[in-house]
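For reproducibility, we list the full input for the flavin-adenine dinucleotide complex.
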Amino acid sequence: MYQNGNCPQDRFDVVVVGGGAAGLLAALAVADSGATVVLLEKNSEVGGKTVWSAGLVTAGGTVVQAERRVEDSVDAHRREILAHAERTGVLGIPGVSEKLGLLIDNVADAVDRLAACGVRFGGPHPEEMHSVARGHQFVPGARAAIAALAQKTAEAGVRIRRDTPVDELITGPTGSILGVRAGGREIRANAVILSAGDFSAAGPGRPAPQFAEHAYKSWATGDGQHLAAEAGGDLVGVDSMVFAALITVDEPLFFAHPHVLAAGAIVVDGTGRRIANETVTFGHGYAERTPHDLYLVVGGDQLAGVATSADDGPVGRDGWLRTGKSHLGNFGGVGYAYVDDLLDAGHAVRGESLDHLAATLGMDAATLRREAAEIAKAVGAEDRLGRSWSTDPFANGPFLAVGPMRGAVALGAGGIRCDERMRALDSSGEPIDGLYVAGDCADSAGAGFITGGHGYGLGWAFASGLIAGRDAAASTGASAGRPAEAANAG
Ligand SMILES: Cc1cc2nc3c(=O)[nH]c(=O)nc-3n(C[C@H](O)[C@H](O)[C@H](O)COP(=O)(O)OP(=O)(O)OC[C@H]3O[C@@H](n4cnc5c(N)ncnc54)[C@H](O)[C@@H]3O)c2cc1C
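The corresponding predicted structure, in tokenized form, follows.
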């Protein structure tokens, strides 16, 4: 399609493809080393899925912890999580120990770099699985964190080109990566970092998502995986690992945790009708069955077991952990949501009766009442959707409806095989010269999710971005400390 000489050219030391968490920090790390770098982003704004996340980053041994008198270290974090992974049997899964170690060893450094960029953190919040508080929560949210990071990245000399999807990698005769082609333009570089996110909206010819319903973001089409595969990169887990969730349509993001459904909450659509066995389908299985928005409906007995901010200690959102009560799910800016958080954000309405709830939401009250009556009748048995009930969760009010929400495939967790320097590997395990990967686009061996902990998706993206950026810059011979402006001149 392109012949040398008939398309416009640029030259940089490093090209970064995709400007989410991984790409922005990778580009900043390259600029910190004094190498020239351009970041190409296909959307009109940088931030990717990162700006739509709940913004919780788990890290141990950070400056933020030290400032807030939380004693911790990278070693303590690593020891604790590897021991946890061993106990739960996931450490034996190929790649988990290496990738988990890589993540934990670098995420504190990444969080410190973000803090130095002016990214603000709440907490750190105590977390399950951790003996000390490691949940670094973006405040007021992920969008603000990315804005601060993008600003510092540009100030450091990174050229950021928006609306510039990368279509192709330029490959030399021996398979080395020589640059990229984007929108009719050829950009030559010594190294390319693919940080183009996940594949949950993959289209034809790309790695396929596991479920048929709507992806959370339509642009998450696995471009990085696709580009790497064309250049001989090995893809791992791209057809099997997905994360589907019930997510609010509006910001700030809230996504419900499975324990909320297991404890008796139901999901109805805008007409008041239940659609599926919520404990089986969880986030997937809705979009193809109803065109309407969804609402999570919680009964009074369950609501009584949800913590309130009065239960929290001085450190962070930990009332649910301290008291053994529950939270409702992840919530942007706060960490874990209680009832008042959702009411205050306009994500929820409360009603003394189901009729009251239905009237507030413009739902058909008779349909909602019929659903509740069917559940009451099914106690000790299964309802029409195959869900078993041991008690009637709607026997007592008040009732809460959270929404509008939708069920979406939020992430595809597989990616491009890589080594500890974030170099892309081919099917024989050899690095592809000049090609690096980072974030959701890179194979993390599912290390973050597999432990069952939170905050490791962003943790992996930032840690791997930092490693890829530093190594890619070093591979170009850039020496740390070279002024970024001089490096970018010309
Ligand atoms: C609802 C939800 C909540 C989450 N909450 C949390 C949380 O609280 N904590 C946590 O740790 N993780 C969370 N995660 C996971 C976390 O958001 C991701 O793991 C992380 O944001 C991935 O960052 P990334 O840089 O790899 O990808 P992204 O942020 O998606 O960035 C990829 C970028 O690449 C661009 N791009 C794609 N193709 C091209 C192309 N061809 N050319 C140029 N650019 C391209 C995209 O437009 C995008 O800007 C959540 C995820 C979801 C969906």
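The radius of gyration is 23 Å. The chain has a mean pLDDT of 90. Both points were considered when choosing residues for closer inspection.
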